[in-house]
Amino acid sequence: MKRTAIYPGSFDPLTKGHEDIIRRSIKLVDRLIVAVAINPSKQPLLSVDARIALMETALAGVEGVECRSFDGLLADFARANDATVVVRGLRAVSDFEFEFQMALMNRKLHDELETIFLVPALNQTFLSSSLVREVARFGGDVSSFVHPAVAEALAEVYAK
Ligand code: PNS
Residue 32: what pLDDT? Predict the structure, then answer.
């Protein structure tokens, strides 16, 4: 039986920290769906389509990974895709409370769904999409934090 995991998130934008978690995750499962959540209550910087296109560029050649979007509940998306594992990255203790609540809620909604937490490479533990957006907004160099295509997309958006 093939094991499918979902790595859900906003990915606004994808960072090298996310890429690191994706490369670690795919070693553990047969199929990994990197899933951009459509959240009507958030105002993203990049459109869902742009985020997926950037992921596909950054992850080209990584076997077993699919980039998709979903709306509604993650638990329902997992059921619809026969996924039994949710992957989330844990960078610091500050991430823990929210992640713990989310894992328990997801299990309440789908009791076959297990959440696993992976720790990114040490030099990426400080990275977050919101910090990358902030650095890019003020013209800082984000090239060591994101794939070149993501850096280009950010520069384009902020040049407008
Ligand atoms: O990258 P983020 O913003 O921390 O990701 C949060 C995300 C998208 C994983 C979470 O908000 C989510 O799963 N949203 C989908 C809706 C849902 O299922 N909510 C209940 C989860 S407890």
Answer: 98
Closest ligand 1 atom to 12 CA: 1
**Residues comprising the chain, all counted:** 160
SS3 32: strand
Q: Is the distance from the beta carbon of residue 157 to the nearest atom of ligand 1 less than 6 Å?
A: no
Pick the atom of ligand 1 nearest to 105's CA. Answer: 22
Determine the topology of domain 4-159 in CATH.
Answer: Rossmann fold (3.40.50)
For residue 1, what pLDDT is reported? 81
* 7, 11, 73, 79: residue to mutate for ligand 1 pocket, most atoms within 8 A of CB: 73
Please state, in angstroms and rounded to a whole number, the distance separating the CA atoms of residues 54 and 11.
10
Is the full-model pTM beyond 0.85?
A: yes
Specify whether the CB–CB gap between 89 and 119 falls below 8 A.
yes
